[in-house]
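Exercise 3.2. Students should predict the tertiary structure of the chain below and write it as structure tokens, then compare their answer with the key that follows.

Predict this chain's 3D structure.
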Amino acid sequence: MFPSMIGTVVIAGIVGYASERTGFTRNGYLPSIIICVGGALLFYFVRIMFGLRFGSAGVDAILSSIGALVIVPTRFRK
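Answer key:
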């Protein structure tokens, strides 16, 4: 369970960095990474408590990170 959580945090950090690098978001590197890690950890705990899954742990981390970036409003969004 612990390696899965660490993997979720690493994948979420990579997604946050990549989204900022590609121009998907314009929050700044650190805020995007924090948003992604927060969303991924939240979904990780929901996955443990309720068994809600979309696929493997990596797929869940990617989808929840992207979902967190889309849901969380930013100051640069029009």
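Discussion points: The radius of gyration is 12 Å. The mean pLDDT is 88.
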